[in-house]
Structures are given as C-alpha cells and as structure tokens.
Amino acid sequence: MSSFADYFRNNEAGNTNRNKTSAVIAKERLQILVAYDRMARDRPSYLPSLKQEILDVIRKYVNVDLASVSVRYEQEGNQEILELNIVLPENAGRVLEAALENN
Amino acid sequence: MAKIVVITSGKGGVGKTTTAAAMGMGLAMLGHRTVVIDFDVGLRNLDLIMGCERRVVYDFVNVINGEANLNQALIRDKRCDKLYILPASQTRDKNALTKDGVGQVLEDLGRSYEYVICDSPAGIEHGAMMAMYYADDAIVVTNPEVASVRDSDRMLGILSSKSKRAETDAEPIIEHLLLTRYSPERVVRGEMLSVTDVQEILSLKLLGVIPESQAVLNASNAGVPVILDAESDAGRAYQDTVLRFTGKEVPFRFIEAGKRGFLGRLFGG
C-alpha cells in the first residue's frame, strides 16, 4: 500500500523543476540566456530602427502595431538573410485600397 | 614588448582586484618585471589591496595629462622589487583616460616590463573599455553564480568585437576563465554551478579555480595580496594559477569536496 510520502514523491517526479537541484536549474537558465544573448550580439545594430521605420511606412496605409512586424536576421556562411514578416489586420486590404485611392 | 593582461568580469565584487594583486605579485615573485595598473578612475582600490595606499603621490591620469612622468607615479612594492603599481586617479572625470593616452602609457611600460596587468573596473563603461582595449590576454573572473556567468559572457562578446585586436583584425585576445569563490561542498549538494558547468556555458579555457576562503578578507584587511598567504587554500590556488599562466602544467586543487571526488579525477587533481 502506498503511503502519503510515496504519493508526494510520485507527484514530484511528474514536476520537471522540483526534482532538479538549484544548480541544474541555474545551468539550464544560463544556457538558454547565453545562446539568446549571443544571437542578439551578432545582429547589426540598425535592426531596431529599421523595424521602426518600416512600421512607420506601413502605418501610413494600414494600422498595425509593433508586435505584428517581425525581423529575423540569420547568417549562413557568407550569406546574410534578412527576413521581414508583417501580419496585416483582417480588413487591411480594403483600408489599403482606400488609402491608395485617396492618394 | 610586454604582455598586456586585463583582469575583467563585467560584474562587480567577483574578485578582480584581489586577482590583479595576486597575479601581479605572483608573476613578480617568479622574477618577471610586472606592473599592475588600476583602471577604476574615481574608485581606486588596488593601492589598498596591495597595501601601498599611503605612498600614492601621482596617478595614472597625472601621467596621461603630462603632470607627472611614469617613474614619479609608479610605486615599487616593498615586498618584491620586481613589482610596481600604477594607481588610479580619484578624479570624477570618467573620460580622463583617453584611448591615445592609455596606449602611450602602455607602450612606455612595455619597454621595461614583461607583464602589464590591467585591473578593470566593473561594468562596461569607459574605464572597463580602456582596460581591455589593448589587451593580449584576458582573465575573465567569474563566480559560479548566474549573474556573474551572464556578465562574463557579455564581456567575452565585447573582448571579441571592441578590442584593438578585434578592430585591427589581429590575432584575437587569448581568453582565460578564472573561477573564484568556489565551494566544492555546495557543488556536491547541487547548490552551486560546477567548474564544468561554467566552462560548458562559457566555452573558455580554465586558468584556475580559487576556493571561497576566509583568507581573502584577512589578506585585504592587512593590505597583503592573498597569494603571499602560502598557508591558505586561496593563496595556493593563486600560486597554481600564476604558474599555469606562465605555461606550466599544474593540476587543479581545491575543486573537490573533502575526499577526492569525480571532479578531481576529471581534472587529474
């Protein structure tokens, strides 16, 4: 028959963080953080302002917010890839047309 | 030409000045003409750790501004005649250290010294940038603790992009990891990042491991570099570190708890 202690032990096994020592948690957090920092480090410093200016241009026609523009920068060997992804709101097509007609 | 070594970390309070004092004294005791420079303008402390605070007349900024020559500003250590200290200025003008001025002083020192140890201030502001700019080697002082490891990684990024060697496409700065305030007992209990953990995260060559030790505070209280306390674990760990820095193979000590653990076997200590 299982005791209370067993119950809690089994429960803890299912919980990813509780069984780990604090050193293991520290290492995992640092590995993620350092990988992210290093990625950001290699990016050109103009990316944030590029993103803002693109957003300003789009806003002349469509109302989008900063979160709907994503800028990805990757390096593969000698090639640098800049990928822009802009999510337009549902009615963007009509608003865009109207804006273009008015101009 | 002298080897220029920066003692850096990003984070404050991890043991940069303790390390600069120990490395300087250690190299000088091995017979190398060595000078230790305090780059922490406005908050000078190296003189206090080295026990020569009452002998400061002129400082680094006086030399850069031409108000004193190098020989007037350098303080010879009373315990070892191969060791000299160039104290920082207490001025509040952070930009007193100009890139050209620092370069000129390092060039002049390079003619008569074998090692120039640059004790960097914490942070990534002007003083820290000047301390690392001309470096040939960097000793990155890190505590086995999340904030310190992260800041060390940031500093590694700066060393590889903002130093003179990076800007001129020269051979990169040789980077060394010095883990300080290490407590093997806590590592065994899973409460502290291990030597291998930190090495894996930072991918750096390990220069030394200095155990958490009461000797460090005792030494700074007295103004004696802890490396001179040969009875202490920290003192002996710094001696090993200095020998390793000069190219000797020295097994790692003080990284296992009590009896020799798996870390000890791993590093052959």
Briefly characterize the structure.
The complex is a heterodimer of chains A (103) and B (269). Chain A has 103 residues and is of the alpha+beta class. Chain A has four helices and two strands.
Task: Explain this structure.
Chain A has 103 residues and is of the alpha+beta class. Chain A is 54% helix and 16% strand. Chain A is built from four helices and two strands. Chain A has a two-stranded antiparallel ribbon with strand order 1-2. The longest helix of chain A is centred in the first third of the chain and has 21 residues, at 22-42. In chain B, strands 3-4-2-5-1-6-7-8 form an eight-stranded mixed beta sheet, with helices on both faces. Chain B has helices at residues 16-29, 46-50, 60-64, 70-73, 99-112, 126-133, 146-162, 164-167, 184-188, 195-202, 214-222, 233-245, 262-266; strands spanning 3-8, 34-38, 75-76, 83-86, 115-119, 137-142, 174-182, 205-211. The model of chain B has no long low-confidence stretch (mean pLDDT 94). Chain B is globular, with a radius of gyration of 18 Å. The A-B interface holds A 21-24, 26-27, 29-31, 33-34, 37-38, 41 and B 145-146, 149-150, 153-154, 157, 161, 187, 189-194, 197, 200-202. Chain B: Belongs to the ParA family. MinD subfamily. Chain B: Residues 5-226 form the CobQ/CobB/MinD/ParA nucleotide binding domain. Chain B: Keywords: ATP-binding, Cell cycle, Cell division, Nucleotide-binding, Septation. Chain B: ATP binds at residues 11-18.
